[in-house]
Amino acid sequence: xxxxxxxxxxxxxxxxxxxxxxxxxxxxxxxxxxxxxxxxxxxxxxxxxxxxxxxxxxxxxxxxxxxxxxxxxxxxxxxxxxxxxxxxxxxxxxxxxxxxxxxxxxxxxxxxxxxxxxxxxxxxxxxxxxxxxxxxxxxxxxxxxxxxxxxxxxxxxxxxxxxxxxxxxxxxxxxxxxxxxxxxxxxxxxxxxxxxxxxxxxxxxxxxxxxxxxxxxxxxxxxxxxxxxxxxxxxxxxxxxxxxxxxxxxxxxxxxxxxxxxxxxxxxxxxxxxxxxxxxxxxxxxxxxxxxxxxxxxxxx
Length: 301
Fold this sequence. Notes:
Blueprint: E1 13-14, E2 23-27, E3 41-48, E4 53-60, E5 63-64, E6 68-69, H1 74-82, E7 91-94, E8 102-106, E9 116-122, E10 128-135, E11 153-154, E12 164-175, E13 182-198, H2 203-209, E14 236-245, E15 248-262, E16 275-282, E17 291-295
Antiparallel strand pairs: 1-14, 2-11, 2-14, 3-8, 3-10, 4-5, 4-6, 4-9, 7-8, 12-13, 13-16, 14-15, 15-16, 15-17
């Protein structure tokens, strides 16, 4: 079977609300951000100048159709748009051009970007193609692309290593008397952890690094921030992490995390003061420690 390179995800960029944020934290028990249903949009394509020949194109969501005839029926416009990746559910009615406009409907599941026309029309008097948005639409969001709610605190920039998700499994081999062969393997322990390094010194990273309640570290009007630490504190959070590769999106949701290891803070000349941490992922009421949600453009129909 041939490899589909569109399904090889690499070089992820942070995909949070700012586009550069990777990690968000909330009080334990906070629900994961959920997708939101969008609304369908409608756009109208008109041809002016009474052309007698030539073609035009329509660009949607960064993709351009094959040339469309100047006198195309709605079915031809629809077929051209549906040939684009992710556009198979777009519909067109009305026409035929150039005398009658074509109305294009975009279901909420697809991108609601405005069509851009390119013209190679001939004949007539200054022929042109115009697109008007008659009903603005909004695209539905998935769990992988949902925006964190106000309950989540943005940790800001993390270093280029991003997330290190590790699964550690311990096992014991069971052997029977009279044989050296293993007759059964028992899983005795399984833990999942996440390593990341905060680049920013902000009220969220200071709270998490010191295992303090979120919102307990605040800044005064002049920017003064104070943190007191002593004996090791126990604090639980919910955490969500976003990453993207082009149009692809990944979201990891950990319902219960606890800081179990801290890297060194180095205040060195010419060096960033970063804060490496390790989060231990604990099971929720369903016994799950991590939920993974993906939005993969290779599967768009």
